[in-house]
């Protein structure tokens, strides 16, 4: 572990131990009872985490039509994502305007608070402590002990969609695999994308997503082009984030079997395109969860990180994973990705 990451981890753990010493100890074994009229959900920061939280919100709204669902957001990206979800009552951005935020959450009295992180986080633990709630729920972890009325105890490598939905079980709501499938709230779709969708539905291309959240999750532009050259009989579309538009356009120009598509402006637009595909090839990003929500099979490009695969991998869809042995996704050979694609295309 790098020294900076190690120091951050040590600080988080020390802060958790401090809270465990000063707050009134909770058993972690209590049963929720009484009315449920309002809930505060501490949402994780990344878009992929937001997508994996949608099944919980969807099922809560279905079971409790009048429930006030408040999202405590810790990033602009997560706040913007949930702004489009009609099931969400209010969004409170913890880090933008602290005084306004404190006024909003301290004036409320929630029936239930849920910390979605299953490891110690300074901000999440602090908000768990200061937000007034009659009943507080977290995931079992030595650094969460004594801080929550109920700790949900699931194996570490349980998929996060299921870990989020475990709150439903605590509330007596039955769930199954399909109930916990991710989804996306509707967002604006450009006329260009809307007009393109019928063509894609009739063509059923293969999609490649060239963007990733971290440098060591990127595959190289040359390897993407090499892969596409190996499938001259297939049609492809290229998906990317805003920062990789130039690379997307170069691949579209250089590969004759690629259907040029407009850059997508949000994750929902991308999901509309993904829903037309026969297969998506993508690094370990939120697009894995978008494809899982659309029931599209996946070839995932991963580093050697078991928890990234078990906790954040494809959910309830056919998939093949290609894992780098170098610690960098860029170390994966095109031949390995081709073989994984052939397995799914032939099936």
TrEMBL record:
Q: Which InterPro entries match?
A: Glyco_trans_9, LPS_LOS_Heptosyltrfase
What protein is this chain from? Answer: Lipopolysaccharide heptosyltransferase family protein
Pfam families registered for this protein in UniProt? Glyco_transf_9
One GO cellular-component annotation of the UniProt record comes to:
cytosol
**Alphabetical UniProt keywords:** Glycosyltransferase, Transferase
Q: Which GO MF terms are attached to this record?
A: ADP-heptose-lipopolysaccharide heptosyltransferase activity
Source taxonomy:
Bacteria, Pseudomonadati, Chlorobiota, Chlorobiia, Chlorobiales
Per the record, the GO terms for biological process are: lipopolysaccharide core region biosynthetic process
Is Transferase among the key words of this record? yes
Question: Which Gene3D superfamilies would you find in this protein's record?
Answer: Glycogen Phosphorylase B (3.40.50.2000)
